[in-house]
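Q: Two folds, back to back.
A: First:
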Amino acid sequence: MAELSTIARPYADALFEAASDEQASLASWSDLLAELAQVAGLDSVREAMTDPRLDGPQRVELFEALIKTPLSAYARNFIELLVANGRLLLLPQIAEQFEALKNRHDGTAVAQITSAFALSDAQTQEIVAGLEKKFGLKLKPVVTVDASLIGGVRVVVGDQVLDTSVQAQLARMRDTLAA
């Protein structure tokens, strides 16, 4: 998977730079990329885009027809570039990296909070407030429930993981006892 993100990075960087240079709204590009990535991630679309009977212009036309949002000239050129380079199916990774660049530019990050039980809004806000102090960033929480944690929470912000779950504590105790 690291290979795909390495290939996708230059496209995300170039698109972010172009979106910043043309004074376009980064949010609108982010929304468009999310839609493009969602369509490119569909199995039927992946199958159609790898059909050897279609040439480049046909792939562009087919893909553009599947998109609800009208495409600007810049967006169409971007899709044509991806098709010409055989990288259209990397749109999910490109969108993910573009979003990370946008978040870094805005001074924000996504905090993936996984809890053993459903959290109330107040509990979520309390966790986010503490994490914002720790990381010095404005965080956007994405909360999920995973009963296998037994208790506590696991938080992922970027490449940092804070795991206070009972499952993690039991694993540490097991490792200590086995050593």
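A: Second:
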Amino acid sequence: MANSEGDRKEPLNEQAVANAYGAMRTEMNQIYSKITELEMEASEHSLVINAIKPLDPSRKCYRMVGGVLVERTIKEVLPAVQHNKEGLEEVITRLNEALEKKRREITEFEAKYKIRITKGDSAMKDDGGKKEGNAQGVLVGPASSNE
């Protein structure tokens, strides 16, 4: 009976390992997505800073604060935008560290459970999906509209 119990646990362990691995990959992708989003925000902050920096500090400026457009001067807005950009860069740095930690954790998990990812099947499916997408992307207007 001990063997049959062991046999029942083996598939559960494989499923548990697969679920844990999938969860780790999902978490890593979420971190990566958040980093990308914050990098875009930091880039937008840089564009704003570069645009308003050479202007007269007493000039009127509008800033969105909590969904409300507020009138301020460049002198008041510039430091706040710079401070926000610095905060975004700090968060990006922390998320990059968390991403590296998660990558190491996944690599150790793969080595421990001897997980291998085959890309051949998924690449073929992706190519097939792209071909269908291109064929479906063509729009033709009605003949009567050209007359």
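Q: And?
A: Residues 46 and 85 are 7 Å apart (CA to CA).
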